[in-house]
Amino acid sequence: MACNYTTISLPCVGKVVPAVEPPTLNTNLKYTSKSCTKTLSTVSKENVPNIVGKFGNFGGKFVAEVLITPLAELEYEFNSVLLDDEFKMEVETALRDYVGRETPLYHAQKLTDHYKNINGEGPEIYIKREDLSHGGSYKMNNVVAQAILAKRMGRKSIITATSAGHHGVAVAAVCAKFSLDCTVFVGTKDILRKPSNVQLMELLGAQVNPVDGGFQAAVSESTREWIEKLQTGYYLAGTAVGPHPIPTMVREFNSVIGKETRKQAMEKWGGTPDVLVACVGTGCNALGLFHEFIGDKNVRMIGVEGGGVGGNTGELHSASLVRGEVGVYHGAMCYLLQDGDGQITKTQSVASGLEFPGVSPELSFLKDAGRIECYTVNDQEALDAYKRLCRLEGIVPALEASHALAYLEKLYPTLPNGAKVVVNCSGSGYNDATTVLKSLQMDEI
């Protein structure tokens, strides 16, 4: 497939007509991809990037020539540290003593009771408390590991982009810890939504560069900055999208979530979860939970995307897996929101961390293989779930995680009594309170 690149811009879009037309909206609670012909063992084997960084047909390195060598160097260093016991010990120590891992697997008793039927039956709801990590989200897992990798590569400065701000705060904090220069690009749209996160980044010593637009624009500008500083700068990606090896690195460093969940589930009830639920923006928190269980045939994995203002396909949303088509974006082939000419379409979600037109190549592969289920939750349903968890459990979830929690409303009637459901609470939602309170005020008008 031909794709025209600019000299310095990483994003590249090319429309691909899939072999099987993807569904526009998955409303069937037992949805399985009609194109799925793979066995679980085949999926598990293919869910490892091949020599060119592809998961099946997804992924790859669709980038300008100037980035080929830096990405190859990054891939070499990444593969090397995976076999380095000293690196692994340094990361493990930082995650324990600095980040505060492991995070609890919390039995949400009142939320469980909320979903019981008139006979007192229903699923048991557990919440993986990533919101309790240092920085208020799961983002620290990946950031700590990549910062240690950057130091090993001799890099002195870190470049990144952020949307909701959790990633930007995590990068700024870790750069302060490791004495690294830090530059964070943030879209003006997201600055208006989360000004306190921008202030935190600056207090932690980061240089914050505003970019007109949202997260997509911030990623593009941060990539240009990286290209200008390839010898001294390190691009610290916080999303599971982009050219290989970036999606694999981000997933690998977040996979501690699923590994802990398996251990904790065994301790609590002596088995594996029946259902895993996570929100999906680009897919890194979902993969962090899912990856450990891909080979467990009895574990359902459900990704919940931002349905935006409503359920109709013509309305604004951020549902790349549910309503997207295959294309190339930000250097990799994935499911993508695009129009008939292959141009990126506008995204919308009450959760800024879900507003992205593309998604992880690995999740794209798992969707086509039928291993994960993909659904949407609209803004109002997410806002309702945010308030519900606050009032029932005294836990304040990020609006991104609230999408996963909201899907319980549709999921619980389909589950047998006692089914063990784990929802990933990917981040804290204290900074979302203003948005939620505004919605409450609007409801009263």
Question: What can you tell me about this protein's structure?
Answer:
The protein is an alpha/beta fold and 445 residues long. The protein has 18 helices and 15 strands. The protein has helices spanning 40-46, 68-81, 85-99, 109-114, 139-152, 166-178, 188-193, 195-203, 215-228, 246-254, 256-269, 284-290, 320-323, 361-368, 379-393, 399-406, 408-411, 433-444, and strands spanning 14-15, 54-55, 58-59, 105-107, 124-129, 157-162, 181-187, 207-211, 233-235, 275-279, 300-306, 325-329, 332-336, 373-377, 420-425. The strands form four sheets. The protein has a six-stranded mixed sheet, with helices on both faces.
Task: Write a compact overview of the structure shown.
The protein has 18 helices and 15 strands. The chain is α/β, with parallel strands linked by helices.
Key descriptive features of the protein:
445 residues; alpha/beta; six-stranded mixed beta sheet; 18 helices; disordered N terminus
What fraction of the residues are assigned to beta strands by DSSP? 15-25%
- The secondary-structure class comes to alpha/beta
Radius of gyration: 20 Å
Low-confidence stretches: 1-36
Mean pLDDT: 88
The strands making up the biggest β-sheet line up spatially as 4-5-15-10-11-14
Helix run count: 18
